[in-house]
Design goal:
The chain has 340 residues and is of the alpha/beta class. It contains twelve helices and nine strands. InterPro entries: Methyltransf_12, SAM-dependent_MTases_sf.
C-alpha cells in the first residue's frame, strides 16, 4: 500500500475513494439524461417514411376509403369523398339541429336571384366603391358583372356541383397523381377543370374549348376568384380538334370529354381521336368519353373495333358513377392506347 501511494505521489496525483465514487455518480446521471433525450426524439425513421408513402398511394376498400395523395409527411388528402366524411357532415347537421328553410328576407340576409344581383351591382356598384377618376385605379383585373354574379354556373343541364363528381370518378379510377398530365376536350367554364387544376402540379392541366364567353369566364373570373392563376393551366380556343398548341412532346395520363362528342360530327370526333392517340401514354394512359359513343356504335361493333385498332386504341368498357349531392348518375366509356 505504501508502494502504491509512493508511485501516486511521484506522479503528482492523489485520487481518493470519495472522489471516485462521486465521479461515477455524475457520469451515471449524465448517461441517464442522455438516453432519455434520445428515446423521446420524434425524428422520422425509414420505416415511418415507407408506411406514409404506401398509404398515400394505396387504393381504398369497400368502406369508401379512396385513393389519395400525401401532400406532407403528416397530411393525407383523399381524392374522393369517403363514407366517414359523409357521416361526419350528417353528424354536424344533427348536432346543430339544422333543417332546410325557405330562403326569404330575414335579418342581415336579403336573398336575390342572379338577375336581381346583377341589376343591384350595376346600379349601386357595391356598398363601398370609388367614383370619378379613381374608379378604375384600384382594380387590377376588372371583371364583368355577369361573371361576378356567376351566371355562367347555370349554363349546364345539371348543377355546378356535378363537376366535383366527375373529377372524383376520373381521378380515382385512373389513380391520378399531382404529376399526371391531363387534357380536357371542351372544359367550358371549368365546372370540372377547376378541381383538376387545384389538384395537379402547375401547367399540368390542358384544355381545348371553342366557346368564347366560357373562356372569358375562365380567365376573368374562375381562375382569379379561386386563387389558381399561379397554376398556369394551358387553355386554348379552338373548335377543330387541333392540338398542336399543346406541344408535340406532351404525353397525357388522362384525356376526357364530358358531354362534348355527342355535339360533334362523327368525322370530327374520329379526326380528334387520330390526333390524340399518339399523345396518350401507351397502356397506362386513358381516354374517357361521357354519355354515349355513337360516333363508334353507328359504324357497328366490328367496324368500330377495327377503326380503333388502326389508331392503336382499344375500348375497355363502360362505367357509371353516382352524384354525391343530387339524384344523378353519369355514364363513361373507357379507352386505352395499345401500341407504344
Amino acid at each position: 500500500m505504501a508502494l502504491s501511494a509512493s508511485r501516486a505521489m511521484s506522479k503528482g496525483v492523489v485520487v481518493s475513494v470519495p472522489v471516485l465514487v462521486l465521479s461515477a455518480l455524475v457520469a451515471a446521471v449524465f448517461l441517464f439524461f442522455l438516453l432519455s433525450s434520445l428515446s423521446s426524439c420524434s425524428c422520422s425513421h425509414p420505416s415511418d417514411m415507407s408506411v406514409s408513402n404506401a398509404r398515400s398511394a394505396s387504393v381504398g376498400d369497400a368502406s369508401g376509403v379512396s385513393v389519395g395523395v400525401s401532400q406532407s409527411s403528416d397530411s393525407y388528402v383523399p381524392l374522393s369523398t369517403r363514407k366517414e366524411d359523409v357521416e361526419w357532415v350528417k353528424d354536424q347537421i344533427r348536432a346543430n339541429g339544422l333543417h332546410m328553410q325557405d330562403n326569404v328576407l330575414r335579418k342581415g340576409i336579403n336573398p336575390r336571384t342572379r338577375a336581381q344581383q346583377l341589376e343591384d351591382f350595376r346600379q349601386f356598384k357595391g356598398i363601398s366603391h370609388y367614383e370619378g377618376p379613381e374608379a378604375d385605379n384600384h382594380t387590377a383585373l376588372p371583371c364583368p358583372g355577369e361573371l361576378l354574379v356567376e351566371e355562367h354556373h347555370s349554363n349546364y343541364g345539371e348543377p355546378w356541383a356535378g363537376g366535383r363528381d366527375v373529377f372524383e370518378f376520373l381521378a380515382q379510377i385512373t389513380q391520378l397523381k399531382p404529376s399526371s398530365q391531363v387534357l380536357e376536350i371542351g372544359c367550358g367554364t371549368l365546372r370540372v377543370g377547376l378541381h383538376f387544376i387545384q389538384y395537379l402540379n402547375a401547367e399540368h392541366f390542358h384544355c381545348l374549348e371553342r366557346d368564347e364567353l366560357s373562356l372569358m369566364a375562365v380567365f376573368r373570373y374562375e381562375l382569379p376568384a379561386q386563387g389558381l392563376l399561379h397554376k398556369r393551366p394551358l387553355i386554348v380556343k379552338g373548335d377543330d380538334m387541333e392540338f398542336s398548341k399543346f406541344g408535340s412532346g406532351t404525353m397525357y395520363d388522362l384525356i376526357y370529354a364530358s358531354a362534348v362528342f355527342l355535339h360533334m360530327p362523327d368525322k370530327l370526333v374520329w379526326t380528334g381521336l387520330e390526333r390524340l392517340a399518339s399523345k396518350l401514354k401507351p397502356f397506362d394512359g386513358r381516354i374517357f368519353v361521357s354519355h354515349n359513343i355513337k360516333f363508334c356504335s353507328r359504324l357497328g361493333g366490328e367496324e368500330c373495333t377495327k377503326r380503333l385498332s388502326s389508331l392503336g386504341l382499344e375500348y375497355l368498357g363502360k362505367h357509371t358513377h353516382d352524384s354525391l349531392l343530387f339524384n344523378h348518375y353519369e355514364i363513361w366509356f373507357e379507352f386505352r392506347r395499345t401500341k407504344a
